[in-house]
Automatic annotation (TrEMBL):
Protein name: Amino acid ABC transporter permease
Keyword field: Amino-acid transport, Cell membrane, Membrane, Transmembrane, Transmembrane helix, Transport
One term of GO molecular function: transmembrane transporter activity
Signal peptide (UniProt feature, chain positions): none
Entry GO CC: ATP-binding cassette (ABC) transporter complex
Amino acid sequence: MSPRKRAQVSRGIQYGILVLLAIVIALAADWKTLAEDFADLDIAAAMFPEVITTALKNTVLYTASGFAFGLGLGLVLALMRLSPVGPYRWMATAFIEFFRGLPALVVFIALSVGIAIAFPGRAIPGGTLGVATVALGLVGGAYMAETIRAGIQAVPKGQMEAARSLGMSPTRAMISIVIPQAFRIILPPLTNELILLTKDSSLVYVLGYTSSTIELTSFGRAALNQEKSMTPLVVISVCYLMITIPLSIVVRRMESRAERAR
């Protein structure tokens, strides 16, 4: 038997095992109980429209503001890491290692409790949104800084040399030539970070929430405690997928377009 034929037989056996496993699971599952516990349409309907107009909206808002803050911070940190000035590199490295090593939950608690203790009577402007923006931005910025730094270093050095030969200053060449090319390279990992921040936005619950500041996970937990059904978790899971799947599709299309442009 030829290697190609053996490979086809091997794949056929694997597909057969998967189909058999799916049939066994389908026959063994208690579909009536699953439908009652995970797909109660009455409970799902009762969650609307608040799950969209409030919880989903707040999740997107917390994520977008945290990502914007983190992206700006990450760019500054990346440039500091690449700076020939030693103190800039040391400060950026210390910041990145510190916030990459801390769980996001600790950062949320530190900002919500620590600020009030260290500075009595003062708080981060913007209430829940302000604290969430800073907390997500600090954690996300530490990771994005390393991603941006790697992207800048991946741009061929000849690009900077060509810009300098045209009379551009190092700063202008970096802003106009190098950084735009770096961002095309690092678009996928940046999108992954955006997806991670979407999930980390669920930590806003440690700040406390009201009916106007609640996000998806807290909304689902409250509904779960009230209804004693897993249906709320299914609903908020679908809402999270409504955010993350389009992001992944957009990135794949942008990657394909960039590949064709090359």
